[in-house]
Every structure is written in structure tokens, then in C-alpha cells.
Amino acid sequence: MSELIVKPTQSANEDGIVLSVTPASAGWEYVGFEVAKLTEGQVLRRETGRNEVCVVLLSGRADVETKREKWQGIGLRMSVFEKIPPYSVYVPNEDFYEIRALSDIELAICSAPGHGGHPARLIEPAQVGVETRGYGNMERQIHNILPEQEPADSLLVVEVFTPNGHWSSYPPHKHDKANLPDESLLEETYYYHVQPEHGFAIQRVYTDDRSLDETLVVRDGQTVLVPKGYHPVSAPPGYDVYYLNVMAGPVRTWKFHNDPDHEWLMPKPRK
User: Fold this and answer.
1) Which residues contact 212 (CB under 8 A, 6 or more apart)?
2) Residue 104, exposed/middle/buried by CB under 10 A (0-12, 13-18, 19+)?
3) Cα–Cα distance between 82 and 125 in angstroms, integer?
4) Which end of the chain has fewer surrounding CB within 10 Å, N or C?
5) Rounded Cα–Cα distance for residues 166 and 133 (Å)
6) Whether the model pTM is above 0.85
7) What average pLDDT score do residues 88-113 get?
8) What backbone phi and psi angles, to 5 degrees, belong to 99?
9) For 48, which DSSP code?
10) Structure confidence by residue, pLDDT tens digits, 69-85
11) Phi, psi of 267 (to 5 degrees)
């Protein structure tokens, strides 16, 4: 299996963690990502330390508490494939978060370096920007959970729904050079769900010189690391694909560069 694919464990640890990516394990500097599955009544408590954190309630309902805030009974969808925006909680560095599961829940814990610039806050579904991107069989639904227009120090978080038979993160693009204003350097993780669960997604990760050139078969519950290069995704016929993206780098902005071979597929601006 490719070193770019991170598989979940067979069983959760005492904190409910079933998948973990750290900067050290990924071989990069900024992005951390974990998935926790808690049973009803289970509690997860963590200190944020030097990192800011965005906890995305992928499914289920929970109470969440930080140093200065408390939110009770948050959560709306029971499956990501309901395709409604999630509840999320932003927590700064040098804080904590405590999550009490009111049902069985799945959490995505997204982290990156924090600088203490923003207070903890609830991100409600109504605050999540929803858009349709692409056209034809490149069309997909986007939920902008923590875009660059919203306050944070490092993190960018978005989820994408790719209908079966469609492509997303397409035309292929990359963001691996600190070359602003044209391109930003951002590490990225893709966390996948597939419906039906026995299906798969296809993801390419490749560079211009093909020093990195992989075609990945990704299963439900797995994560793909994108340290550099272009990274398009395909949802095979019959299988809808969901993924949660976490990005971070030295500058918190998403500026990408399209693969010149495929840039002609970009929609033309309307006159």
C-alpha cells in the first residue's frame, strides 16, 4: 500500500482515536489530523497545547466545552451523506476541548500551529458556506467550514461531496510552492467516506517532473496525505465519495496552480 494512505486502526484507543496523522508521522511541518469514534456517554478531553484545533462533528450529537465556552446538544446529521453542513468548534492554542457524546459520534480533529489570535467559537451549519463547483461530470458540492475569510491562525477546513461518476479537485491543481500571490504552500489531508461503504475512490498525486507519481485506490475511512503535487479525485460509477480536507502552511491562504496540460478544462468566465 502507498505510504500516502493512512488506514484506520481495527479498534479505537482509550480516547476513541481510530486514525492519527501528526507532522512527524507525515514528514511535514503543519497539519495534524485525527478521527475519533465515541460511543454514547463517552468523553474525550484534550489540551490544545501549541496548536489551534477545529473539531468537526462528522456525525452524531455532543456537548462541547472549552475554557470559556460551553455548547450543549450540537449536531444535526447522522451521516455525512445527508449532505447538510456540520457543526464544528474552533479552539485556540493553550486551551482545551471536552466532548461528551450524546449518541455514537464520529469526530474529525484538525490541528495546525496556533498563535492565540482568536477565541473559541461554535461554527454552526448556517455559517458554513455551501457552493457547487465545476460543471458536467466535474460538478461537486462544497462545504466551506473554515475558509480563509473566517478567523483562524493556520487552519483551512473544507468538505466535498463528489457524486458517483464525477471527478473533483479537478482540473488537477497543486499548492506546494511559496510563490505568492500566484501559489501558496499548503500541506493537505483527505479523509474519505464512500457510499456504499464497500466501494472505493481513486486519487492521483503527482508532480510535474513525476518524481512523485502515484495512483491510489482509497477505501472508506482512509486518509490520503498530499505533501506536494497535483491531486485529483475520481468517484467511480455507483459510489458517492465524501472527503474532508485539512490544509495549513506558512501563510493562511489558498492559492493554487493548475496542471497546464489540463487547465483548458477550467470553466470560461461569464461575460
Assistant:
1) 205, 206, 228, 229
2) middle
3) 13
4) C
5) 12
6) yes
7) 98
8) -120, 125
9) -
10) 999 999 999 999 999 99
11) -60, 145
